[in-house]
Amino acid sequence: MGSNMLLALTIGGVLLGLGLGFLGRLADLTPQSITLISFPGELLMRMLKMFILPLIISSLIAGMAQLDVRRSGRIGFRALTYYSITTILAAIVGIAMVLMIHPGNPQIKSTVAAVVKAEETKVSTIDAILDIIRNMLPENLVQACFQQVQTSYVKKKVVVISGSVNQTEFVLEPTLVYKDGTNVMGMIVFCIIFGVLAGQIGPRGKLMVDFFVVLNEIIMKLVTIVVVWYSPFGIMCLIAGKIMSITNLAATAQMLGLYMVTVVLGLMIHAIITLPLIYWFITRKNPAVFFRGMMQAWVTALGTASSAATLPLTFRCLEENNKIDPRVTRFVVAVGATVNMDGTALYEAVAAIFIAQLNGISLGFVEVITVSLTATLASVGAASIPSAALVTMLLVLTALGLPTNDISLLFAIDWMLDRIRTSINVLGDGYGAGIVYHLSKTTLANSDNYLSARMYSKQQTCMYKYMYMVRNNFHRTV
């Protein structure tokens, strides 16, 4: 009863937020009034982000410590296989939709002025790959909690001597800079290794493992008590404030409406057809029942536009509603929130070809394959924060040689598409956890037996040692 009421309140919050947002636009509110309306939603985002780091650390370490290395490796392989397949399928669906509908019209580019002047930035795929690897191995764990490394190109003045004339030129040189934002990838890698080793130490590491297990339970209780029941009101304020703050909403929708329809239709196909079919084919279970259990997290993702901020609710929906083993959710969902971005891959594939169509550029088969592969790679590098796809979009455009300043055309509508694609990302993580759990039931059962046998063996060894000491002391006394 409680979960049904909470779901109804969350959906009601979304609908009320939409209604209040459009009514607020008619009232012509001041920026300060809009800020006050959005403030409860800002508090929700701050609370959710507050739990991200302790939740990832405690859930991953506790989950990995309770699995032996060989069996956790199998679960990881199944999860990564699922991530790769669904992300590539999402990019293919996006490419098919944008080629069929063809939303790109060169007149849009001349009609819609660039809302935000986008700076030409030199970005390469190699730089992005190296940055991902660098962030996987942070040089400072404390710094990784609030910063991540990124390659940036800065202008450097160079004096060129040509005969008797000195000329000054500016060249772009790569340099490593730290930008604000939790290095989730680095924390995940460290916590996985730490958890596996903590589980292998045996009785000496039990105290450490118990600490993270209890920490995870406390955080989940905090999420349930504090965040979950506040989220419907916070989501309503987030959506209402965002709609009120958009300028020239009607003109933007008119000019980019077909592009929005293409993206949304592709995301719906992936969410309603692709993911449920994969889930049903592997588990032979009703995907509608599974989705109903995930709906609270899905609606929250629509409101927050952040898969990382939705993590606490995703864990709760999977473990309490869909009865997924916490050892699976703690690994699959925590990693999936960073690397499994189906909606982002689809969005970036559509946006790249849309920009090519705007510039009157026809893409051949090789270019389309490049789009699908680069969009898949870029989605892995996208941070699980709002509007991160606009940053990684530069990779896809650069790979095709398209002008990166055309991204500014998409800024005006990204607030809405970002929420929809984030909800698809969260849904993909949920289905992935269900599939991996179904395939790993035997593995988890064997792991339980293995841990029980190992604990029994250690107890027997301790008992034999104790009996041996008692016998020796007895003989010495005699």
TrEMBL record:
Gene Ontology CC: plasma membrane
Annotated compartments: Membrane
Leader sequence segment: none
GO MF entries: glutamate:sodium symporter activity; L-glutamate transmembrane transporter activity; neutral L-amino acid transmembrane transporter activity
Entries under Pfam families matching the protein: SDF (PF00375)
Primary localization class, coarse: membrane
PANTHER family linked: SODIUM-DEPENDENT EXCITATORY AMINO ACID TRANSPORTER GLT-6-RELATED (PTHR11958:SF99), SODIUM/DICARBOXYLATE SYMPORTER-RELATED (PTHR11958)
Protein's name according to its UniProt entry: Amino acid transporter
Organism: Cardiocondyla obscurior
